Amino acid sequence: MYLTVDIGGTKTFIALFDSRHHIVKYVKFPTNQNQDDFLNTFFTHLQDYQDAQPTNVVVAVAGVIKNNRPSWFGNLDWHNPPLQETIKKLFTCPVFFINDADSATLYESHFYPGKSIYLTFSTGIGGGIATASKTLTARSRLATLTPESADFEPGHKIYIWNGQPCEWEDIASAGAIRHFYDNRPVTTLRGRATFFDIANRVAVGLRDIILEHQPDVIIVGGPLALTLKKWRLPLKIILRDSLSANIPLPKITRAKKPNFCVSYGACLYGEQKAREGVSRG
Asked: 128-172: per-residue pLDDT in tens?
């Protein structure tokens, strides 16, 4: 058993996985912005998993991990919350922390041989870069984050949009698109012109990513992934017209688990640590 925790800016998802990577029990609850209130709620929900005796616990956070400790929590104004200490009150197994974009990248990339780039289009735009062996089956293939992934911050690159300098995530994230379309969820948008607009927004940053990293596969996650089939063709047309003929267009595909890939990646990470015999965390 592997216990995973995905702490996002708006929701937290706790999931218990079996040895075949199946979720056997889970709970989702709002992420309280107040640090102490969150810890109290978190501890209450964790108690429901105490009898599972997991091999380890992996916590994914939207922030920076240093020495197996989160040092920054993105949009959450938290300061050194005792997450590990809270978990250790109930579990004696190792506890590991991982960046949530890295976790999602590890899961989504392990299905594809070669170099993959995972991009999540949600409130912002995040992602990671990984490679996976071509010699193992998809079931046992393990993706590895590349060194360039450590500095991969695609959502914060600046582009000119409508005559103004903007970060890419202010142009093409699901949040930005929702705001532009009168606060309508991206999954409810319809119309050929709308999907060409989405494709244009995504192509702004994707063009540079392809030129710089030349991946074999680009994996789209987050809410925008749920409509990919509607705007993938216009996206390919825009990219093909803007890239030179000697630059191959990578495969562009939807994430296998667009809403839960962070948790599934945390499970794979926990399994990897167990295989390596890492007993401290």
From this structure: 999 987 544 445 557 888 888 888 989 999 999 999 999 999 999
Torsions phi, psi for 58 (to 5 deg): -120, 125
CA dist 262 and 253 (Å) reads 17
Strand 95-99 vs strand 114-121: parallel, antiparallel, or unpaired? unpaired
Report pTM.
0.84
CA atoms within 13 A of residue 178's CA, in its CB half-sphere: 15
Structure tokens at 203: 């192509």
Q: Which residue has the tokens 């914060």?
A: 156
Cβ-proximal residues to 20 (8 Å cutoff; 6+ apart), any chain: none
Find where tokens 């030349």 sit: 214
- Structurally, the chain folds into a number of domains equal to 2
Domain match, 122 and 74 both: no
Q: Which domain holds residue 143?
A: 112-254
Residue linked to tokens 């009898």 = 51
Which residue is it, tokens 């296998």?
Answer: 256
161 close to 176: Cβ distance less than 8 angstroms: no
Contact at 8 Å (CB) between 94 and 276? no
